[in-house]
């Protein structure tokens, strides 16, 4: 009896297995264009709705979205491409760009005549990205920013006017940030901290300093850059003020679910502010916090700049529906589509749309993403992610620097200038040592 | 007189028994402590399955939800169609177990009972293949399967199991070494062929270890997230680990569902384990009765 | 004459042996050998998965050995491999022995000890996050506070995090425990009874009788723990993710880096897909495992002499 049972079970399993095999490898019909992007189950409808606008303008073409998943998208993409089975249009971000830098998998979009106009309409800075020499392997469809997220509860009853801070039209300098956070802290008798990760800190030492210490474009470290060193000094003082928590904890651990933003809801204890992007704001809002965003900050004396990463559209060479793919890209970069895109996703990379979205105080656009502070599309700093190894060395050097500097309490402090300068010099030297990892 | 003598003897025996294994009792207490530590994270995970996002993100830890979202379970199973992924995982795991266990036992029989030329060489090579981390061969294997045309479905995950897994073969071989040859020899004298000996004599004796091997193989397949990730394209074929990944995102307004999914995913594995343990105890009885 | 020789061949040990291991042999030649050879060749190339494959000889190896991250990973891995093997085998045997009888309590305890082996990778890092949280709200830290001990930054301490990793190898105790349980149960009871009658204490019985009988299984577990230890990856990745420091490194300043984790980051996880370098790391792992295996083989030979005596 038992034997019969187990035989039946095995047969059932094999049958089940066979049926599963039979059901796979379905072919995609000719009029369907496959577009892939990362999105969890909760974000898909927004993209699908956006895609329907394209379908309306191009009857006969249907879009099939391939939302692999949020955390494994880039890994899966590599194997899809290796298998020549990726989508026809692929979304790629700064972070996932690495393996394709010198590759031959994507079509050179500069060679497509129908796209010449839309490409010209994209921000100049965005157009410098995803280039392999003279070949354009991808064109920017959206840019993602960073802002400072603040819990309105911390400013309740404060002498500092939060709405005024929100609507200001220039970046904060670190000293300003210290005095504001410090002041609020003193008012509430609490401690606040600002979290950011190493790449964002590197930004403060590069673009906004004018002449940067770490130049990711030329892959060099300039240890004599005075403006850069002044920026480091500001950053160190910001962290040593006791209000600002330095790197080490990244704000991006989506896979584990333990966002550092979680620290923001720490009972009655420490409330943090966070220098982060749209993904971080959602987390905070989902945690029930009333979040308001402030303009980011820059190095002392530096120009108003906004740190951005970018999301691009690429077409794999293996795609068999390239014409439809180009049509989609042409549409996606058009003014109307870009404005719609900004309503639920990134800032538009189309210059005209960008000016529109960031220029006014329109209610249509999520204020947590853009606020009312607008940096012109000329002042966008495109962060071209550091290599993991350099980022690691950078974090280590920064940690050492912070440990070495004279640690003080909350509020006002005496700084031993000589010690600080020496520590900063050691920091630069450590970066110089890691230069080959850039 | 008689009474006191036997009771004092008994007392002596009991005392010596305790003195003999006091160290056992201490160790047992340590184990209980360890077990308590292990329970904590599981407990947290299960109670998190019904928490609101806010409660999940709060520190200090919220142990019991004050607003339990029991709807999470319905949402995961029905709306997100988790049951399909469970079925996929079960089919894949069952196939792997059936093929791998039998095949590994087959190969192990060859290594342990036959002293053929080059057996130690091949055995050594087999062990050596385990010493190379799997991640190194993933990409070349992927390219190999692409050439054959086996990508986009389950085949790369199942077919290699027919050839036996090195770890399973090693384990079963070691067990077979402990099985005495007498019964084999007796059967040989009776004219039984090697295959018969394998099926009728060896297999029944190693049922416990086959169950253990089956359990390990089942879990290996169940937990595998990388294999399905790179070989499966169609979302309807996804296995449980992949499906769980799709629940993770900062945009997710309901963090709890990830834990709901994880808790649900725990159930089949516990069932398999409990069944395995039951048959393990029974199997030993059968083996003893040989 | 011919039929006799045919019969002889058919019945020969050699043929039968090869026939039985045929499934594995086929699998080896079809699915295994090509990837192994290719990965070895690739370790001498600079290959980014999609770019050009340029031959750079020992370039990958030189780069790896001169990289300080590698040295951190190497020491972490060696420490982990050694201690986790010790823990797995020792505790595995002890636990299996103590929980051997099929009482309800023992069954329950065994099940709970095995529970950790049932969790899917993501679950692990999520479960560990609130426990090892470096702030005062981490579970362990709260526990420490109760006793007035200082709170620690568990997973973020370069140099110390590896000990947490080693301690966490207990998480995988279930596997060895089950194997040793099965092994102990397979021991013929008559031998144990005989020992009892002879007046041997439990401890003596365990050491002098049970252990030698299950010696092949101990060897198996030594190997598997060793191989698993040198290739430790899931645990390290899980703990690093749980501590929130896994984006730009393997933990704070790569504190939780192990060789296999380093392999993963180089070839699969990070921003790049340097498959050539990843293959090189893999072969370095192979080499280290091989060296350790030789030690174990020597140990086995020596103990065989011992048991023979």
Describe this structure in words.
The complex is a heterotrimer of chains A (438), B (290) and C (309). Chain A has 438 residues and is α/β, with parallel strands linked by helices. Chain A has two domains: 32-145 and 308-382, D-Maltodextrin-Binding Protein, domain 2, CATH 3.40.190; 147-307 and 385-437, 3-Layer(aba) Sandwich (D-Maltodextrin-Binding Protein, domain 2), CATH 3.40.190. Chain A contains 16 helices and 15 strands. Residues 247-271 and 406-413 of chain A have low confidence and may be disordered. By secondary structure, chain B is mainly α. Chain B has two domains: 2-48; 82-288, Orthogonal Bundle (MetI-like fold), CATH 1.10.3720. Chain B contains 15 helices and no strands. Chain B is flat and about 70 Å long. The two termini of chain B are 47 Å apart. By secondary structure, chain C is mostly helical. Chain C is built from 16 helices and two strands. Chain C has helices at 2-11, 13-20, 22-42, 59-65, 68-98, 104-114, 121-132, 139-147, 161-167, 174-185, 189-197, 202-213, 215-230, 234-242, 259-269, 275-308, and strands at 45-47, 53-55. Chain C has a two-stranded antiparallel ribbon with strand order 1-2. The radius of gyration of chain C is 24 Å and the shape is flat. Chains in contact: A-B, A-C, B-C. The interface between B and C is large, with 94 and 96 residues.
Gist of the model:
The complex is a heterotrimer of chains A (438), B (290) and C (309). With 438 residues, chain A is of the alpha/beta class. Chain A has helices at 2-22, 44-57, 73-82, 116-120, 124-127, 162-167, 174-188, 198-205, 226-240, 278-286, 322-332, 335-344, 351-359, 367-370, 388-404, 417-433; strands at 32-36, 62-66, 89-93, 131-132, 135-136, 139-145, 147-151, 192-195, 214-215, 220-221, 271-276, 291-294, 306-314, 347-348, 380-382.
Characteristic terms for this protein:
heterotrimer; B: 290 residues; mainly alpha; MetI-like fold; 2 domains; flat; C: 309 residues; two-stranded antiparallel ribbon; 16 helices
Percent helix of chain C, as a range, is over 70%
* Count of folded domains of chain B: 2
- Extract low-pLDDT stretches of chain C: none
The averaged pLDDT of chain C comes out at 84
Strand content of chain C: under 5%
Q: Report the sheet with the most strands of chain B, covering strand number, pairing sense and barrel closure.
A: none
Number of helical regions of chain B: 15
Low-pLDDT runs of chain B = none
Query: Structural class of the helices, strands and pairings of chain C?
Result: mainly alpha
Helix content of chain B: over 70%
Classified in CATH, the superfamily of chain C is MetI-like
Number of domains of chain C: 1
Along the chain, the helix and strand elements of chain C come as HHHEEHHHHHHHHHHHHH
Q: What structural class results from the helix and strand content of chain B?
A: mainly alpha
Major sheet of chain C? 2 strands, antiparallel
The name of the CATH architecture of the largest domain in chain B is Orthogonal Bundle
By CATH's scheme, which homologous superfamily of the largest domain in chain B applies? MetI-like
SSE order of chain B, one letter for each helix or strand? HHHHHHHHHHHHHHH
Strand order of the largest sheet of chain C: 1-2
């Amino acid at each position: 009896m038992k034997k019969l049972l187990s035989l039946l079970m095995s047969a059932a399993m094999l049958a089940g297995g066979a049926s599963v095999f039979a059901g796979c490898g379905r072919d995609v019909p000719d009029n369907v264009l496959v577009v892939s992007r990362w999105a969890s189950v909760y974000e898909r409808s927004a993209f699908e709705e956006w895609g329907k606008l394209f379908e309306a303008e191009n009857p006969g073409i249907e879009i099939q979205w391939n939302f692999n998943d949020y955390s494994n998208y880039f890994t899966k993409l590599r194997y899809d491409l290796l298998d020549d089975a990726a989508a026809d249009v692929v979304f790629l971000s700064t972070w996932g760009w690495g393996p394709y830098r010198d590759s031959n998998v994507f079509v050179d979009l500069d060679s497509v005549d129908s796209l010449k106009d839309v490409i010209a309409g994209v921000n100049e800075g965005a157009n410098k990205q995803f280039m392999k020499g003279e070949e354009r392997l991808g064109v920017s469809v959206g840019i993602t920013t960073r802002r400072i997220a603040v819990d309105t509860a911390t400013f309740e009853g404060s002498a500092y006017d939060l709405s005024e801070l929100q609507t200001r039209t220039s970046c904060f300098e670190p000293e300003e940030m210290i005095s504001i956070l410090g002041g609020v802290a003193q008012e509430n008798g609490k401690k606040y901290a600002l979290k950011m990760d190493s790449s964002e800190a590197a930004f403060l030492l590069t673009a906004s300093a004018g002449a940067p210490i770490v130049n990711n474009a030329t892959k060099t470290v300039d240890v004599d850059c005075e403006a850069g060193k002044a920026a480091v000094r500001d950053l160190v003082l910001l962290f040593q003020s006791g209000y600002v928590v330095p790197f080490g904890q990244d704000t991006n651990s989506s896979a584990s679910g333990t966002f550092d933003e979680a620290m923001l809801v720490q009972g009655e204890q420490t409330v943090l502010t966070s220098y982060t992007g749209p993904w971080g704001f959602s987390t905070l809002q989902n945690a029930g916090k009333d979040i308001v965003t402030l303009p980011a900050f820059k190095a002392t004396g530096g120009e108003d700049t906004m740190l951005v990463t970018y999301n691009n559209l690429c077409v794999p060479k293996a795609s068999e529906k390239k014409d439809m793919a180009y049509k989609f890209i042409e549409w996606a970069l058009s003014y109307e589509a870009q404005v719609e895109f900004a309503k639920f996703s990134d800032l538009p990379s189309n210059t005209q749309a960008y000016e529109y979205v960031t220029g006014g105080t329109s209610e249509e656009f999520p204020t947590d993403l853009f606020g009312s502070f607008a940096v012109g599309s000329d002042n966008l700093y495109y962060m071209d992610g550091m290599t993991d190894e350099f980022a690691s060395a950078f974090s280590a050097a920064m940690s050492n620097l912070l440990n070495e500097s004279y640690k003080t309490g909350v509020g006002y402090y005496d700084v031993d200038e000589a010690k600080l300068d020496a520590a900063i010099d050691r920091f630069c030297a450590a970066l110089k040592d890691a230069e080959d990892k850039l | 007189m008689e009474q006191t003598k036997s009771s004092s003897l008994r007392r002596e025996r009991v005392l010596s028994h305790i003195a003999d294994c006091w160290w056992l009792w201490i160790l047992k207490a340590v184990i209980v402590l360890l077990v308590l530590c292990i329970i904590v994270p599981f407990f947290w995970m299960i109670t998190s399955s019904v928490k609101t996002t806010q409660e999940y993100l709060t520190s200090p830890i919220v142990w019991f939800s004050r607003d339990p979202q029991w709807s999470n379970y319905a949402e995961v199973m029905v709306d997100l169609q988790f049951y399909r992924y469970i079925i996929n995982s079960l089919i894949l795991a069952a196939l792997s177990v059936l093929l791998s266990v039998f095949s590994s036992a087959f190969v192990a029989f060859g290594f342990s009972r036959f002293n053929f030329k080059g057996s130690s060489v091949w055995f050594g090579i087999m062990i050596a293949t385990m010493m190379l981390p799997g991640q190194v061969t993933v990409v070349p294997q992927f390219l190999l399967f692409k050439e054959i045309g086996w990508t986009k479905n389950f085949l790369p995950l199942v077919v290699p199991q027919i050839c036996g897994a090195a770890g399973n073969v090693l384990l079963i071989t070691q067990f077979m070494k402990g099985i005495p040859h007498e019964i084999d020899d007796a059967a040989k004298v009776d004219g039984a062929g090697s295959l018969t000996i394998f099926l009728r004599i060896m297999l029944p004796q190693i049922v416990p270890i086959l169950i253990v091997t089956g359990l390990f193989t089942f879990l290996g397949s169940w937990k595998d997230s990388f294999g399905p990730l790179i070989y499966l394209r169609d979302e309807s074929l996804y296995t449980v680990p992949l499906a769980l990944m799709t629940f993770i995102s900062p945009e997710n307004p309901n963090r709890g569902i990830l834990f709901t999914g994880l808790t649900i995913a725990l159930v089949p594995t516990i069932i398999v384990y409990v069944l395995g343990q039951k048959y393990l105890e029974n199997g030993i009885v059968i083996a003893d009765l040989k | 004459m011919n039929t006799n020789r045919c019969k002889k061949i058919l019945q020969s040990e050699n043929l039968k042996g090869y026939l039985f291991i045929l499934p594995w042999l086929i699998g080896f030649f079809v699915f295994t050998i090509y990837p192994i050879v290719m990965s070895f060749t690739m370790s001498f190339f600079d290959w980014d998965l999609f770019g050009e494959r340029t031959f750079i000889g020992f370039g990958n190896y030189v780069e790896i050995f001169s990289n300080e991250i590698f040295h951190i990973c190497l020491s972490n891995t060696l420490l982990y491999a050694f201690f986790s093997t010790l823990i797995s085998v020792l505790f595995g045997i002890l636990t299996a022995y103590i929980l051997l009888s099929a009482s309800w309590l023992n069954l329950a305890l065994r099940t709970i000890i095995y529970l950790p082996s049932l969790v899917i990778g993501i679950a692990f890092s999520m479960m560990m996050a609130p426990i090892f949280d470096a702030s005062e709200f981490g579970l362990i830290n709260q526990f420490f506070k109760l006793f007035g001990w200082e709170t620690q930054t568990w997973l973020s301490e370069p140099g110390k995090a590896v000990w947490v990793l080693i301690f966490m190898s207990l998480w995988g105790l279930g596997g060895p425990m089950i194997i040793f349980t099965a092994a102990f149960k397979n021991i013929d009871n008559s031998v144990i009874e005989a020992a009892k009658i002879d007046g041997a204490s439990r401890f003596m019985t365990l050491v002098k009788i049970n252990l030698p009988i299950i010696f092949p299984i101990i060897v198996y577990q030594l190997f598997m723990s060793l191989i698993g230890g040198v290739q430790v990856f899931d645990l390290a990745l899980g703990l690093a993710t749980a501590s929130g420091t896994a984006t730009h490194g393997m933990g704070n300043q790569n504190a939780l880096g192990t060789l296999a984790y380093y392999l993963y980051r180089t070839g699969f996880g990070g921003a790049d897909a340097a498959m050539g370098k990843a293959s090189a790391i893999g072969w370095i792992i192979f080499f280290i495992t091989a060296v350790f295996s030789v030690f174990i083989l020597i140990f086995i030979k020596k103990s065989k002499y011992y048991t023979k005596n």
